[in-house]
Amino acid sequence: MQEITLKPGMEHMIQKKVAYEDTTVSFGRAGIETLFSTPALVTMMIEACVDLVGDNVPDGTVTVARGLQVTHEKPTLQGMTVTVKAMVDRLEGNVIYFDLVCMDEVGQIAKGRMERHIVNKDALIKRAHNRAEVLEDINR
Q1: Any residues with CB less than 8 A from the CB of 22 and at least 6 apart, and which?
Q2: Which residues contact 47 (CB under 8 A, 6 or more apart)?
Q3: Cα–Cα distances in Å, from 136 out to 81, 104, 133?
Q4: Would you state the CATH architecture of domain 11-138?
Q5: Which residues, 6+ apart, have CB-to-CB distance to 107 below 8 Å?
Q6: CB atoms near residue 119 (< 10 Å)
Q7: In this predicted structure, what is the pLDDT of residue 8?
Q8: Model-level pTM?
Q9: What is the rounded distance in angstroms from the CA atom of residue 100 to the CA atom of residue 86?
């Protein structure tokens, strides 16, 4: 069986220019529509962690988010560039803990921590289908 090759200290960075779709207007926040939204920031944080995991987990497994803590501290305008750095803090069994730092051209705008679990992909999908069957039974 393939080993988990993630190690504490491994890191990955992603970057993007804040587009209109990334602003608060996408979430119905008129009046501050030129600002980078927290949901778009969270999406980037998740993407950075998933990219870092990459092929560093055994075949047939995936990681799923179990917890996320975010502090969005500073506003960023549309057109600025946001960089998210994910770093593996530690591994405990099948659990990976990440530290996250988010910056724009001016400085740090957010920080966070994410907990992701390494799970069997087929078993995860089967559990989801089993849960959906409950709805089908209720609707009959």
Answers
A1: 16, 36, 37, 40, 78
A2: 14, 84
A3: 45, 47, 5
A4: Roll (3.10)
A5: 74
A6: 17
A7: 97
A8: 0.90
A9: 5
Measured CA distances, 60 to 7, 18, 38, 104 (Å): 20, 34, 32, 36
Give the number of other Cβ atoms within 10 Å of residue 65's Cβ.
Answer: 15
DSSP conformational letter for 2: P
Could you tell me which residues come within 8 angstroms of residue 30 by beta carbon, excluding any fewer than 6 positions away?
Answer: none
Token code pair at residue 31: 């009046």
In the sheet that 81-92 helps form, which strands lie side by side, from edge to edge? Answer: 11-17, 81-92, 95-103, 108-120, 61-72
Q: What is the pLDDT of residues 40-65, one digit of tens each?
A: 999 999 999 999 999 999 999 999 99
Instruction: Please give the structure tokens belonging to residue 95.
Output: 């659990």
H or E element: which one contains 109? strand 108-120
Residue type, 14: I
Q: What three-state secondary structure class fits 100?
A: strand
